[in-house]
Amino acid sequence: MVDYAEVIEKEPLFRALADIGLRLGELDVDALLPRLIDFVPDSHLPLLAESMSVMGFDGWYLAENDDARRTLITHAYELHRYKGTSYAIRQLFYRLGFGEVDIDEGLTARSYQLNYAIPDNEKWAHYAVRLSTPVTNEQASRIRQMLDAFAPARCVLAVLDYKAAPIRYNNKAKYDGSYNHGSA
């Protein structure tokens, strides 16, 4: 039994609130926090992202709208728990709105036209990511830097391939140099 101040002891409602206040430390904050992110003002999202360690190339630079940023923050614990695995890479692309990706570890799924030759005994450390949506050259550059942060340390990105997601000629992608023809 806890001794409260006389004002709290007299009033049953105050005593009940004080008892609840003592139990706040027992709450599982990890389970509660993702539910509160939807209610935070947009201007506070960078602070939350910094506290969850998803700023910069850990995902923030590729989150292009507030919904993507909120999703990134909500799933930050899961992403960091699996960081360094292909699962984390797939989830990161999915959470940022790039859809499903295929990861070809060891470059065994198909042959790639690279600007440099990879000796056969070193192919095990290289991987390719095949996206299901086209990305701009700027996004491709940021994706490469993001993959440096999330991919296993032993791995080297050989190619970022989005040839399977062709750019349609419907005036959404302009020929101003921001898109290329399928790999970066």
Short description, anyone?
The chain has 184 residues and is mainly alpha-helical. The chain has helices spanning 6-10, 12-22, 29-36, 45-51, 66-74, 76-81, 86-95, 137-150, and strands at 101-105, 126-131, 156-161.
Explain the overall architecture.
There is one protein chain. The protein has eight helices and three strands; from the N terminus they run αααααααββαβ. With 184 residues, it is mainly α. The chain has a three-stranded mixed sheet, covered by helices on one side. The longest helix has 14 residues, at 137-150. The protein is elongated and about 80 Å long. The mean pLDDT is 82.
| Straight-line N-to-C gap | 66 Å
| Beta strands, count | 3
H/E order of the elements? HHHHHHHEEHE
Structural class: mainly alpha
Q: Please give the share of residues in helix.
A: 25-40%
**Main sheet makeup:** 3 strands, mixed
Arrangement of strands in the largest sheet? 1-2-3
The coarse overall form would be elongated
> How many individual helices?
8
What is the rounded Rg? Answer: 23 Å
Report the β-strand fraction as a percent range.
5-15%
| Low-pLDDT segments | none
Q: What is the arithmetic mean of pLDDT?
A: 82
